[in-house]
Write a structure and sequence with these properties.
Layout: E1 6-11, H1 17-29, E2 33-38, H2 48-55, H3 71-77, E3 81-87, H4 89-96, H5 103-110, E4 115-119, H6 123-127, H7 129-140, E5 144-145, E6 149-152, E7 158-162, H8 166-178, E8 191-197, E9 201-202, E10 208-209, H9 216-227, E11 231-237, E12 248-253, H10 256-267, E13 272-275, E14 282-284, E15 305-307, H11 311-317, E16 324-331, H12 339-350, E17 354-359, E18 370-377, E19 382-389, H13 390-408
Parallel strand pairs: 1-2, 1-3, 3-4, 4-5, 8-11, 8-13, 11-12, 13-16, 16-17
Antiparallel strand pairs: 6-7, 9-10, 14-15, 17-18, 18-19
Helix pairs in contact: 1-2, 1-8, 3-5, 4-7, 9-13
Bound molecules: cytidine-5'-triphosphate.
Length: about 400
Amino acid sequence: MGTRGRVVLGVGGGIAAYKACEVLRGLTESGHDVRVVPTESALHFVGAATFEALSGNPVETGVFTRVPEVQHVRVGREADLVLVVPATADLLARAAHGLADDLLTNTLLTARCPVAFVPAMHTEMWEHPATRDNVALLRGRGVVVTEPASGRLTGADTGKGRLADPAEIVDLAQLLLARPEALPRDLEGLRVTVSAGGTREPLDPVRYLGNRSSGRQGYALARVAAQRGAEVTLVTAHTGDLPAPAGVDVVDVSTAREMADAVEHAAAEADVVVMAAAVADFRPADTAGHKIKKTDDGSAPTVSLERNPDILAGLVERGRPGRLLVGFAAETGDEHGDVLDHGRAKLARKGCDLLVLNAVGEGGAFESEHNTGWLLTADGAERRIPLGRKSELAAAVFDAVADAVRDTGPGQ
Ligand code: CTP
């Protein structure tokens, strides 16, 4: 499922251009029709034949081919999304100032659909006042310029300026196709803490009590918050090889108690805390220091459990005025009420400001790319979130967060 669209994939002339091939692949595999428009210098890094083979569409860089088709206007007009991967400092400058000296920059001026730049450059170039001003100009016009990742750059150096992970770029593109208004810069100046994944409570050195949380919803929340301008800390437990969202500080933990420490530490400075993790309520009372062995008499050991801290309840208890707390709950209906009844009761019991409620088994949640549910607020409002990608649900959550912060102001 998802919104299928016509995507213009602009490719700038930087070494990260080779990763545009993976983005292209991800988009076509999701059913989108992709037209690649590289700059002339991008073709120093990846040949036109590669883009043509992967997209199934012709590749041109200039405005003087197929002139009767008026390509310099048509390509932009027909697009549902223009995505530029990688956006170099030069390309951002040309776009910010409305230059139109090749097919890509012409396309940027004629497109009326969402436009997103995914930058990749050396830290010095990203931080240079010229680039900062160009990025601010573009964002001020409603253009999405994503935060780059930190890490290894070309050569031996590391720092901010690395291209976001291709899977993350594909996800952001899908989000913008489904919800063109999903990434406003409305969380700038806010500190957001997100928890993700499922804790593991050790029984012995090889066994643990765990759960099926994949962490995808928490990662989508962190990614969307960062791209909306927040300073994000993601506290994550056992999320496999999900790529770290660009521009996000990631803290790895394992058990509920480790998660409690890390979340409380980050939350001390946070304006918003989103508890998307599946935290184990119980842990084995004793952890064996050696592997528990079978015995000859055929008996099985008894495991006694003890309670873990309730992290969200702790944050509510030691609440700070102005800090917004968002909880998650997966519920089923039973003889005491339906999913919404249980959600409302949990919101009241937990005392958080917002609760994202999933109906277990309703086409989403665990291990899926998709999710659906309701958004319940402490003032009694309820909003249905239709089935969509987890980043769409994340955008709906941060719409509500941004509304709430606008009403009360951060740190009030
Ligand atoms: N949560 C938490 N610490 C825990 C358990 C849960 O912070 N030890 C958070 C979850 O991250 C989620 C919310 O509390 O945001 C609700 O989780 P859930 O497991 O549904 O809540 P419980 O209070 O444990 O409810 P139940 O008795 O239905 O399991």
